[in-house]
Amino acid sequence: MQLLGRSICCVRGGREVFSGLDFEAASGQALAVTGPNGSGKTSLLRLIAGLLVPSAGSIDLKGGGTELTLPEQSHYLGHRDALKPALSVRENLSFWRDFLGGDAGDGEQTLAQIGLGHAAHLPAAYLSAGQRRRLSIGRLLAVRRPVWLLDEPTSALDAGGQDLFAGLMRDHLGSGGIIIAATHAPLGIETRELRMGGAT
Amino acid sequence: MTALAALIRRDIRIALRVGGGALIGVLFFLTVTVLMPFAVGPDLALLTRLGPAILWLGALLASLLTLDRLFTADHEDGSLDLIVMSRMPLELACAAKALAHWLAAGLPLIIATPALGLLLNLDAASTSAVALTLLAGTPALTFTGMIGAALAVTLHRGGLLLAVLVLPLSVPVLIFGVAASQAAITGPLSFGTPFSILCALSLVSFVIGPFAAAASLRHGLD
After folding, report:
1. Shortest CA distance to A9 belongs to which of A142, A197, A174?
2. What is the band of B136 on the pLDDT scale with cuts at 50, 70, 90?
3. In Å, what is the CA distance from B207 to each residue of A93, A129, A139, B168?
4. Residue B143: per-residue pLDDT
5. From CA B147, how far away is CA B165, in angstroms rounded?
6. How far lies A57's CA from each of A4, A6, A68, in Å?
7. Cβ neighbours of A68 in B, within 8 Å
8. What is the overall mean pLDDT for chain A?
9. Which of A50, A194, B53, B220 has its CA 20 to 30 A from that of A181?
10. Neighbouring C-alpha atoms within 13 Å toward the C-beta of A111
11. How far apart are CA A39 and CA A41, in angstroms?
């Protein structure tokens, strides 16, 4: 499986964020997208996720062997964590598992894996920023998708959380997944770097 | 199918929790209806004549009250991104959200109608007629209102913009809803004609609403 982007051009609000961008990532590879603020890291992830439309160029997933589109095979972990404060931790996770088509019945195990087993009944409103991030990461585990698109995934995580997440990413790459992560900090796994240009 | 049920279940659950919209809508409906006799005066015959119109206006405003959060809440916390990316067609997701909103916010209004009819000097037969027309008509309000809710996401404005956009669209529903109620209570027109048109308006909105809302959401992605 290979994710290929060819001469992508992104225009937002009438301003060209980047153009002529090429990237590729194969199964088992992680691509760290780095660059200064405003260089288009998040825009690139949202382009891959199908949430933005490139003004030129193409992004394809080759060798998936299914009829699903690239966004349907991707997990997007953005700045906003897609959690409902009124629902409990367990309800938040099981909603996304059911909605995204995961296997039922492994909710407790996933919660234990991300270190939230003790908080399963708490409304998500009472979680700290780091716990919210852990819960969002739980979504990646509850539903298997080959492509992970991560936007600053380790922000707000404590040292233990970062190690835990590095381990989870390593497992994902080991099982043939692809990771594209926009990041400023080292992820703790072996990555290739895609350097975005400075803001013009 | 699990995904659809999960989305409906989640939205209903959020609406019924503390801070959700379901109870607020009923309380607002109650307030509007209680205020009317004070404004109109204690003329029982007049109240009976105005009753159906007051109930319809109250239900219309109450169902709009929470509708503006239909998509903006999901947009603000990032859920909408994941819904757009998912395998479920966006049109179906929109329809599911509107259905959940109607079940959580519209249905309680209809259940409350017989009690509120008492305050307006309507007899049992009249209030059941009004409740029946609300049952047929409020889905149309929700499903056309959904278009406004989706536009509110695109335009990054909520609240009043929605009311301004949606209220003109709900004029036909209001006309035939009140006409059907009046026909049932006082005659002389037949109940069937306006009621059939009311049902037709709801059916049309089931088709147009989800497609228009999904198109608006796709267009407004950023």
Report:
1. A197
2. very high
3. 32, 41, 33, 19
4. 94
5. 9
6. 11, 6, 20
7. 87
8. 86
9. B220
10. 19
11. 6
Burial pattern B197-218, b for ≥16 Cβ within 10 A else e, equals: bbbebbeebbeebbebbbebbe
Q: Which residues of A touch B76 (CB under 8 A)?
A: 80
Give the gap in angstroms from C-alpha B220 to the nearest C-alpha of chain A. Answer: 10
Asked whether the beta carbons of residue B10 and residue A12 sit closer than 8 angstroms, the reply is no
Q: What is the ipTM of this complex?
A: 0.88
pLDDT at A176 over 80: yes
Beta bridge partners, A123, equal A88
The verdict on a CB contact (< 8 Å) between A74 and B85 is yes
From A184's Cα to the closest Cα of chain B, the distance in A is 22
Give dist(CA B106, CA B113) in Å, integer. 11
Mean local confidence (pLDDT), A55-63: 86
Contacts of residue B72 in chain A, CB cutoff 8 Å? none
A contacts of B2 (beta carbons < 8 Å): 98, 101
Nearest of A170, A180, A149 to residue A72 by alpha carbon? A149
Measured distance CA(A23)–CA(A46) in Å, rounded: 15
Do residues B86 and A69 touch, judged by C-beta distance below 8 A? no
pLDDT band per the 50, 70, 90 thresholds, residue A53: confident
* Out of A12, A84, A98, closest to residue B14 by CB: A84
The answer to whether the beta carbons of residues B69 and B152 sit under 8 Å apart is no
Backbone angles phi, psi at A150, to 5 degrees: -120, 130
Mutate one of A88, A91, A95 to test the B interface: name it (highest B CB count within 10 A): A95
Residue contact A95–B10, C-beta within 8 A: yes
**Is B87 within 8 Å of A72 when comparing Cβ atoms?**
yes
CA distances from A13 to A59, A61, A199, B23 (A): 21, 27, 15, 40
Task: Please state, in angstroms and rounded to a whole number, the distance separating the CA atoms of residues B75 and A78.
Answer: 12
Cis before residue B172, ω within 30 degrees of 0?
A: no
Render pLDDT for B14-60 as a digit per residue (tens, 0 to 9).
888 876 677 888 899 999 998 888 888 888 888 888 888 899 999 99
User: Could you tell me the two tokens for B110?
Assistant: 């209809």
| Beta-carbon separation of A72 and B86 below 8 A | yes
Mutate to test the interface with A, among B74, B82, B90, B92 (most CBs of A within 10 A): B82
Mean pLDDT (whole number) for A13-40: 87
